[in-house]
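Example S7 (structure tokens).
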């Protein structure tokens, strides 16, 4: 019996390794990593590969995704002719963004930066109170805390007065809300509710779908007129589940103009994957959006494992390659793919002033250690690193030459690049980029600089820990 089990294990091991070797479009480093894990730790390696080795969706869900994506692609292609033609250094970034999620750059937009802290969502709450037609919201994390309760009560009031309210939350990230009295309260008030990637039965789900796929987006659209883009979840800045890392510091912008149509399309595509009977909603993105005179050119970039071959890292690299003077990066989680790390280092080596701002203490020690494994190379190439001290810096910002900016839900890590469903906004605007640079300057003022000497003085054990954990990066 024992001999038969051993033979079966080796046969399964060989079959899985063969599958890894036959998979198309897999980076050699990723392929090598999986082969080594499966070969060196056969039973555990096989289980890890089954759970996390391939990005797969349930067949019925994958079919529905294909139909919904194609439908919206057709709508956007035949919608209002409001496309822009970006010039000069920004053109490659917008072209890459369009190749990623299909949205063209559009002119005539206006944005306002919202204050840091718990007042950041006051503007959204005020617009919900005045909504007359629709409120559409998706959040990765929505907690039943002070701010989360205010938001739940606001959408419930809107629904009671006849506004069409649709709420989509990630089933894992917003689990506390779903299990709280606020969830049935909203439903009773007439709010339409849906859960992205429902957890369901683990034993069944693992057979058909990768378990760690998540909807990490943060989108709100009110009356098809105004939207918000940034890193903020529906939770207090104190963030009770991880209060010892707080306050969480986020970025959020209010946006009006044709970009609202693109954000609406992203929300509706997600909504139609999990809610039935709302097929008529696609008409919302067919309606023209008024351009604001003198408004900036922008583009929504929605990413996810089923949406495109390219990802947001390609857009980031296009921005970095175009940089001539300065680059500012803010990200809470830095586990880059090879091309992003190389693009940052290349910019610094050719004389671009590159500054990166990261949290001094990460809420995930594994991610923090993997991030630290890249510090030596970054500093050696001339990148300036700053460790943000008062809380966890959760903003995601990339600005180039005081003109081009990218903000949204996407971290500069492999999970955001390859696994999560994310939304970001690419902006060609000197005033907006200048404002974002000012925000990041405020972050550096509350940070301490990390020097090459400090990193080289780390203990041998710390360096071994960091580099050992980083070995697993290609397998994400």
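Recovered sequence:
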């Amino acid at each position: 019996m024992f001999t038969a089990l051993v033979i079966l294990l080796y046969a399964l091991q060989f079959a899985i390794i063969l599958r890894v070797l036959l998979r198309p479009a897999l980076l050699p480093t990723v392929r090598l990593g999986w082969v080594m894990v499966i070969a060196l730790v056969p039973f555990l390696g096989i289980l890890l590969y089954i759970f996390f080795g391939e990005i797969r969706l349930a067949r019925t869900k994958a079919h529905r995704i294909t139909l919904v994506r194609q439908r919206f692609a057709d709508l956007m292609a035949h919608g209002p002719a409001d496309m822009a033609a970006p010039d000069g250094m920004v053109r490659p970034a917008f072209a890459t963004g369009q190749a990623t999620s299909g949205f063209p750059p559009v002119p005539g937009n206006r944005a306002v930066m919202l204050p840091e802290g718990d007042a950041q969502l006051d503007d959204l709450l005020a617009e919900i109170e005045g909504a007359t037609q629709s409120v559409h919201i998706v959040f990765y994390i929505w907690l039943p805390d002070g701010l989360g309760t205010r938001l739940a009560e606001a959408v419930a009031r809107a629904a009671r007065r006849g506004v069409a309210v649709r709420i989509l939350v990630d089933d894992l990230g917003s689990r506390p809300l779903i299990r709280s009295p606020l969830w049935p309260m909203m439903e009773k008030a007439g709010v339409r509710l849906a859960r992205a990637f429902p957890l369901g039965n683990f034993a069944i789900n693992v057979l058909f779908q990768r378990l760690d796929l998540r909807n990490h987006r943060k989108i709100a659209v009110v009356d098809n007129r105004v939207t918000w883009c940034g890193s903020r979840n529906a939770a207090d800045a104190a963030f009770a589940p991880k209060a010892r890392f707080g306050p969480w510091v986020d970025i959020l912008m209010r946006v009006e103009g044709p970009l609202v149509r693109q954000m609406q399309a992203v929300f509706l595509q997600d909504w139609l994957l999990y809610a039935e009977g709302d097929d008529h909603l696609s008409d919302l993105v067919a309606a023209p959006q008024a351009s604001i005179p003198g408004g900036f050119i922008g583009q929504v970039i929605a990413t996810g494992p089923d949406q495109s071959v390219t990802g947001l890292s390609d857009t980031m690299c296009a921005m970095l390659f175009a940089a001539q003077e300065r680059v500012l990066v803010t990200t809470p989680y830095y586990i880059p793919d090879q091309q992003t790390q190389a693009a940052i280092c290349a910019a610094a080596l050719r004389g671009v002033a590159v500054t990166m701002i990261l949290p001094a203490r990460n809420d995930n020690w594994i991610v923090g250690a993997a991030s630290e494994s890249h510090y030596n190379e970054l500093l050696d190439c001339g990148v300036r690193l700053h460790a943000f001290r008062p809380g966890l810096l959760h903003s995601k910002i990339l600005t180039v030459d005081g003109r081009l900016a990218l903000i949204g839900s996407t971290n500069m890590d492999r999970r955001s690049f390859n696994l999560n469903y994310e939304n970001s906004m690419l902006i060609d605007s000197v005033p907006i980029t200048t404002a974002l640079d000012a925000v990041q300057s405020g972050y550096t003022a509350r940070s301490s600089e990390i020097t090459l000497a400090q990193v080289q003085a780390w203990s041998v054990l710390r360096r071994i820990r960091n580099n050992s954990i980083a070995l697993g990066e290609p397998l994400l």
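Notes on this example. The chain has three domains: 2-52, 59-85+106-295, 312-475.
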